[in-house]
User: What shape does this take?
Amino acid sequence: MGLEEKIPDSIALTTLEKMVGWARKRSMWPLGFGLACCAIEMMSTFMSHYDLARFGMEVMRPSPRQADLMIVSGRVSTKMAPVLKRLYDQMPNPKWVIAMGACASCGGVFNNYAIVQGVDRVVPVDMYIPGCPPRPEQLIEGILKLHAKVEKERLFERKETKSKK
Amino acid sequence: MNLNMGPQHPATHGVLRVELELDGETVVKATPHVGYLHTGIEKTAESKLYYKVIPMTDRMDYLAPMSNNLGYCLAVEKLLGIEVPEKVEFARVCLTELTRVKSHLVWVGTHAMDIGALSMSLYGFRERESIIDVYEAVSGQRMMSTYFRIGGLAKELPDDFDRLVRKAVKDVRGGLVDYERLLNDNMIFRGRTINVAKISAEDAINFGLTGPILRGSGINYDIRKTNPYSGYEKFDFEVPLGRNGDVYDRFLVRCEEMKQSLRIVEQALDGMPEGPYRAHVPGVVLPPKEDVLSKMESLIFHFKIITEGFKPPRGAVYQAIEAPKGELGFYISSDGSTRPHRMRVRPPSFVNLSALPKLVEGGLVADVIAAIGSIDIVLGEVDR
Amino acid sequence: MEEKLRHFFESNFKDAVVREDFFRDQLSFYVRKEYLFDICEALLNDEALGFKFLSDICALDWLGDAEERDGRFEVVYNFFSLKHKYRFFVKVRLDGDKPEIDSITSLWQTANWLEREVYDLMGVMFTGHPDLRKIMTPDDLEGHPHRKDFPLTYEMPQFSHNKNEPPEVIK
Assistant: This one.
């Protein structure tokens, strides 16, 4: 009795938010932004031993206009920070940032005049992955946690991201 | 027309910016701009004790971390005037040659991918995984191992070292056969690399180039043969030389170097002697852990070395090694205190990159990518 | 080989050498800065010795040390001979107020970028260099980082003391 009996079997019901979240997490395209040592581990993760293409991140777009995920892998120097901000501004919404490695999260091993102590002083970060460099398994776990976060995001109340430079 | 190959580019292997002035498709002028990864390692090393600098040297040329460790440890040992036991020399040679193979595998993968053979990167990284297994068994880390110490090794070699290294050698040899079949006589690869980015022998010496670029132009300068270090005079290997000095010759030189390195690794494994894994120099080299836990003076030495450090004599030394990229040199100047007064790294990639305008001017835009790949730069070393 | 070098310096540049140093089998000559370009030219053109390879140019800062009385900055030139497989050093002391020295870019092309790096990080001016500008540090950084009076700019880590707010710096 009720609505369930009147609807035929071939229609699936869901909310718009859930569908958009499901689609967003299944095919995130990363921007190829390798800076230093962590970039080599990121490249290893994309290759055949620890395949990242099985999570939908097959292509690594070189242009920021076509990417939605920026994986900052490596140390960010003070000369590179304005370039990073510009690339982040060129990416279309919705966009996410992963700070991979100790140098991108907090400055890492280097605490001096030349390295920005954490990339979150330049762009807002969604996921921090520690390690120097993090193993490919750690990177995959970080990406899966980000996927879980994206799937549950509300569609119209997306946080206004402010960054400080 | 001015074209900017910006810091973020899929083919520049890091953050390198090249400003090109074009006239149609030909390059009139090329200016590389570096410094986007400057880390201040040399300045930071002046505020740390001598053995604390070793992890920082790992992160300079991050594709061949054990070579950097070897250069630094040899330089400090020369400054102090200590000798290491024979087993340490054999183990160091074995691991450094595996590092050379590892670095060249990444190079061949990314270089061939830039030129067009997109699946070569997958093959290069696949063979690299067996060498990474050796690193992990020896030190616990996949890339930045920090395994060499001043006066010896960090800890004893593991029991399955022999088995893992032989498996890695077998895997890489099989892979090299495939790469040769795929690339050496390939029409597209030859068409994009023969007679491209040539440099003559006199120009190469004047520009100070070292490593496979110099050997690709025909000059026989390999530091392992001219000024041997760490026991290299006991091993039997050949140095490949090129003829024309173009990109194809450098590719062949590096592939042949990989095979010679595997020969050295097998000789080191077959002849590995027994013995201590550290020199016995009280006051400078850490004593083994069993002694620290049982004898009093070892405990005191351990405590003093870790908290205070040792004081080398005043003076300055220079030690050069043959890294996969060229001549890597460490100039360490000491003023008698526990911290180095100045640690200068002579970076091979920095000096090799300064010859890029000469290689590229007069050629086509697509040849710039092939030239940058054949110089084999690592931006961590260029900018330190 | 050391005898040949000593003979070379004594016969041509007797009043240029201040002193000689032989530490851990490495020979180095301290010369006066006015004679540097002539010494380098003579080394390049001498066929018997064969020093055609310039490996490295590096600079040291002796501020606060006993060696400062000879000159605050020291520039080290590293020469290698492919013929005899021998390496030696030529060192020059400069004073701290106005460190200037001739550039040897016209003899060796290696010196182009190496001298730019020494200028950027230590502040030594090279007269006659075709294009002396910054290479490593960003354009808005003033000062020369490798000098001893430039601070390391070490940032103390911010502890959160078990409170759940982000530290002051990021807010």
